[in-house]
Amino acid sequence: MSTISEITTVADWEKHISSLPPSTLLIVSFHAPWAAPCAQMATVLSTLASEYPVTEPLSTSWVSINAEDLSDISETYNVTAVPFLVLIRNGEVLETVSGSSAVKVRAAIESHANTGSTTVLASNGAGATSGVAEGGEATTVEDPEKKKEDLFKRLGELVKAAPVMLFMKGTPSEPKCGFSRQLVGILRDNAVKYGFFNILADDEVRQGLKEFADWPTFPQLWVDGELVGGLDIVKEELDNDADFLKAYSVKANGDASAVAAS
Question: Which CATH code of 3.10.180.10, 3.60.40.10, 3.40.30.10, 1.20.1250.20 fits the domain covering 4-113?
């Protein structure tokens, strides 16, 4: 049965993709070691991989990539949050799945791995599932209160995905608003190791976090699961205490940015 191989260098990645037959479905899982949802997704994908036999020629190939360590590859596939799944065949991206919904992941893989199969209807991904759902099951309409409860549970985990979490417009390398750009600059100036989430890539998180945090604007900075606030509040905190972010400084470790969980 198929297993998941970890790609650790760009050279390994290039060698792997060049070795695949054009017909092979390449399943690429981007992850970050500190993001709890990635551990869940690893279990989901291992279970799914075991359902696909190793064939000749190879029908599926399963690999995992640390999105932070191989940031060049992450940027190539627009990875803005983890876990993030990319399905590729013959160099063409067929589909991407962001988040930890096992139903979505299974549906995407089955729809492209099985020639002539019918695309499985996926759930809306409001909450992560802990197991692998059976493909082809009917999707039920969620109760609005249950959907909100699931979203808030997801947001509660998301704000704790890293000790310092920045919810911003765009990414640290390409901020989409001046306030986000300035806050990224403050974190870099203080050599803070942080996770980030591009709220423009997930409107559910963007809208839900406003209510969850009772804070209507972005960027938002969270520390140890607690909301600090926006740019003005962060500036004020640093004016009052220059060592406000010192505990999260990683000056010896180079790049301060990180990829956030979804």
Answer: 3.40.30.10
